[in-house]
C-alpha cells in the first residue's frame, strides 16, 4: 500500500486475526513495512498456539485474546468440535446458526473429507466456549490508541455488527476492510449506507469490501 509507505507508524487494528498467516490480508505488510497494531483473536487455542508464534519477533504488534462486543463481559463463541485445522477455526463465530447453515449445505462435510477427518453426529459438531468480550472504546483507550489507519475485520458474519458499534465519533480509520460474504443483502446495504454517511467510499473485492475515507472528512 502506497499510503503506508508514506505514513509514519502506520497502525492497524485487526479483529479476527486467527493464526495471523493463512489467508491473512495484512500479514505481509506487517513484516515488509513494520506496521504497528493490535490484533484480536477470541479463540484461546488458536491465539496461544498460532497467533502469538506468528508475531513472536514483531515487537510492534500486540495480540490480545478476547472478542469485541457492545458490552464488556463474556459471550459464547461457537466452533467446530472435531478439528483445529485453519479452515475449521476460521469458521468460529458468535452465530451458531451460521455454522449450522454450513453443516446443512454440506460445506463442512466436504472440507472435513478433504482433510480425511471423520465427523461426529451433527448435534455434536459444534461446541460452545465462553470468551472474554471488551468494547472498542475500553480496549483502544486502555492501550492509548490515538489513531487507526486500517480497521481490518473478519468475524464470520459478525462484521456488520462490529461496524455498527465502532466509535466513529472518536476514531476515523483511513481504511476499513471487512468480509461481506456472510451478510444478508439488507444488512450489507444498511452497513454500506452507514459507512457512506461517515464519509467512506466502498469497493467490493471478491468476499471483502474495502473502504476509503474521503479526504474531506
What are the defining features of this structure?
single chain; 217 residues; alpha/beta; Rossmann fold; seven-stranded mixed sheet; three-stranded mixed sheet; 25% strand
What does this structure look like?
This protein is α/β, with parallel strands linked by helices and 217 residues long. The protein has 2 domains: 2-72 and 131-213, Rossmann fold, CATH 3.40.50.150; 76-130, no CATH class. It is 33% helix and 25% strand. The chain contains 9 helices and 10 strands. The chain has helices at residues 2-6, 27-33, 44-54, 86-89, 96-104, 107-114, 136-142, 159-165, 185-197; strands at residues 11-15, 36-40, 61-64, 67-68, 73-80, 126-134, 150-153, 175-179, 200-205, 208-213. It has a 7-stranded mixed beta sheet with strand order 3-2-1-7-8-10-9, with helices on both faces. The chain has a 3-stranded mixed beta sheet with strand order 4-6-5. The longest helix has 13 residues, at 185-197. It is globular and about 55 Å long. 32% of the residues are buried. The mean pLDDT is 93.
Amino acid at each position: 500500500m502506497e499510503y503506508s509507505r508514506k505514513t509514519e507508524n502506520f497502525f492497524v487494528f485487526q479483529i479476527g486475526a486467527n493464526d495471523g498467516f493463512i489467508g491473512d490480508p495484512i500479514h505481509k505488510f506487517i513484516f515488509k513495512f513494520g506496521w504497528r497494531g493490535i490484533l484480536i483473536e477470541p479463540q484461546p487455542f488458536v491465539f496461544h498456539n498460532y497467533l502469538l508464534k506468528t508475531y513472536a519477533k514483531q515487537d510492534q504488534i500486540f495480540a490480545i485474546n478476547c472478542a469485541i462486543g457492545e458490552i464488556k463481559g463474556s459471550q459464547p463463541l461457537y466452533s467446530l468440535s472435531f478439528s483445529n485445522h485453519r479452515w475449521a477455526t476460521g469458521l468460529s463465530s458468535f452465530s451458531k446458526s451460521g455454522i449450522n447453515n454450513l453443516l446443512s449445505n454440506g460445506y463442512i462435510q466436504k472440507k472435513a473429507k478433504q482433510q480425511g477427518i471423520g465427523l461426529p453426529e451433527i448435534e455434536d459438531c459444534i461446541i460452545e466456549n465462553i470468551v472474554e468480550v471488551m468494547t472498542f472504546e475500553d480496549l483502544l483507550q486502555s492501550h492509548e490508541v490515538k489513531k487507526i489507519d486500517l480497521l481490518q475485520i473478519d468475524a464470520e458474519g459478525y462484521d456488520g455488527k462490529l461496524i455498527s458499534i465502532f466509535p466513529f465519533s472518536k476514531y476515523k480509520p483511513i481504511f476499513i476492510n471487512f468480509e461481506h460474504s456472510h451478510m444478508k443483502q439488507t444488512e450489507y446495504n444498511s452497513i454500506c449506507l452507514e459507512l457512506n454517511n461517515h464519509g467512506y467510499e466502498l469497493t467490493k473485492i471478491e468476499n471483502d469490501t474495502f473502504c476509503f475515507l474521503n479526504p474531506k472528512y
